[in-house]
Specification:
The protein is mainly alpha-helical. The chain is 84% helix and 0% strand. One of its GO terms (cellular component) is plasma membrane. Keywords: Cell membrane, Membrane, Transmembrane, Transmembrane helix.
Length: 477
């Protein structure tokens, strides 16, 4: 890798982490200072109803735009125009349906008072997909640091506007309106950052763009459902007390979900790199990107996953309280499951970037089917532990299938020697952690010491080298 990619990876991962923290702060500020519990619940429902834009359509649009810009960077303006001409009519139609159907949607929740808030939130349909076009342009141009700064700017702006307008307008209209305004300003800045660069024609047809976009949307839906269906199963299949069990389960899942939320930003880096090299049929460069991406992800994710798995009770009580102690039972399995899911997301991103989005979607479908069957069988018997086990097995099923395809097509994964050393060092700290119980704030100190042990073990085994140190220095210079 080069310094530009290394710094881009660092900034994008950091921006993802910052965005996650900002979202948590929004709920904390609204819930503790600005809205009552009932109003906070309304805000959460209304925003969740439109979050499908960000989870599915926005991610799919960004990757599709990035794909075609990365192939011919000089054609960025042409690709942007094709995407906008295709999306703007769709956005307007979605907005109109959602706005006009607000009463119908509200009645599904047996609460017609939701309708005006749904109408305000519907403006996000006009803004978010367009914002994602500009993000995709920056990604395809490999302007990763700029992309990260725009993402962080949007997260900070959303935090400020949601909180500020909720305070100044005294309630929900301000909070939801702040969300919409943040998207508008983010879109405006994205337009400014991508204007006037690259006037070369792309020869991209609407048909080709749409043919790539549809399976990417399908893949996004399937991969998101893979880590959501377990919660639905807990609510639907555990009988009396299902809401309480669902609360414990989402508490554990929220902790473990930190891996894909933060680390999967690496997928934004590898997507345009693999897309460009496969388009040029540069197989050696593609293999280089795959090996390095997976190795550095393994270095970052595996020790944390095993540390979390070794301290589920301590981690739950420090993040929540003793009242949430039952959440510890699924946390160990979910920590490993979400680590596997992170690799699954990166591998399916590589597959899609190599112009095989249908294959990536099929693998995601198989993994989801495995999860659905296992949840149906295990949750009624093992309750939340059954849901966690189902997600664990399904995530590994998706990981194995996607890794197998990448290996067969590109003859590249994490080098076996590196994998063995990283696994050995991670298992070492896992074993030490099990035999060294600490609680409260001491847990943080324990993690830091064990991570130092992990790094020392890798140095002794010569898995970490001067080159890795130089990369670490590059990203923070």
């Amino acid at each position: 890798m080069n310094e530009k990619i290394e710094r881009g990876t660092f900034f994008l991962v950091s921006a993802n982490g910052f965005s996650m923290v900002a979202n948590y702060l929004i709920y904390i500020i609204l819930g503790k200072f600005l809205l009552g519990a009932e109003q906070l619940g309304v805000y959460a429902v209304v925003i969740s109803l439109v979050s499908v834009i960000e989870m599915v359509l926005v991610k799919a649009v960004q990757q599709s735009v990035s794909k075609f810009v990365s192939e011919r960077p000089g054609s960025v303006q042409d690709v942007k125009l094709v995407a906008l001409k295709l999306l703007v009519p769709l956005n307007i139609a979605m907005f109109a349906v959602y706005f006009a159907g607000s009463n119908l949607i509200a009645s599904a929740f047996a609460d017609l008072s939701l309708a005006p808030y749904i109408q305000v939130a519907s403006f996000l349909f006009l803004l978010h997909p367009v914002f994602s076009v500009f993000m995709g342009c920056l990604n395809g141009l490999r302007r990763f640091v700029t992309q990260a700064k725009l993402r962080a700017f949007y997260a900070l702006l959303k935090l400020a506007l949601v909180s500020g307008l909720a305070y100044s307008l005294s309630g929900l209209y301000g909070a939801i309106g702040g969300f919409v305004l943040a998207s508008f300003f983010g879109m405006a800045v994205g337009f400014f950052l991508t204007r006037g660069k690259g006037a070369e024609p792309s020869q991209l047809s609407y048909k080709r763009f749409f043919a790539f976009l549809v399976p990417i949307i399908a893949m996004s839906i399937l991969t998101d459902l893979l880590v959501s269906i377990d919660l639905f199963a807990v609510k639907a299949l555990t009988g009396q007390g299902s809401s309480t069990l669902a609360g414990y389960y989402i508490a554990a899942s929220t902790i473990a979900r930190v891996f894909p939320l933060v680390i999967s930003a690496i997928a934004f880096i590898v997507f345009p790199l693999v897309s460009a090299t496969t388009f040029r049929k540069d197989i050696e460069k593609t293999r280089f990107y795959i090996r390095n991406t997976l190795r550095y992800t393994l270095l970052a994710v595996l020790p944390f996953a095993l540390l979390f798995a070794s301290t589920p009770k301590e981690l739950v009580t420090i993040v929540y309280s003793l009242d949430y102690l039952p959440a510890a039972s699924p946390l160990a399995s979910l920590s490993i499951a979400f680590a596997a899911y992170t690799f699954f997301i990166i591998l399916t991103t590589i597959i899609a970037a190599s112009d095989r989005p249908k294959t990536a979607s099929l693998i995601a479908f198989v993994a989801l089917a495995v999860s659905a069957v296992l949840n149906f069988v295990l949750v009624p018997v093992l309750l939340i532990e059954g849901a966690a086990l189902s997600t664990l097995v399904a995530s590994f099923a998706g990981l194995i299938l996607s890794a197998g395809f990448v290996l067969l097509r590109f003859k590249a994964l994490v080098p076996l020697k590196s994998f063995s050393k990283i696994l050995a060092a991670s298992l070492l700290v896992y074993a030490i952690s099990l035999g060294w119980p600490l609680e409260g704030l001491l847990l943080i100190g324990k993690y830091l010491i064990l991570l130092a042990v992990y790094a020392a073990a890798l140095l002794l085994m010569k898995e970490l080298s001067k080159k890795d140190l130089n990369i670490a220095l590059n990203v923070v210079r």
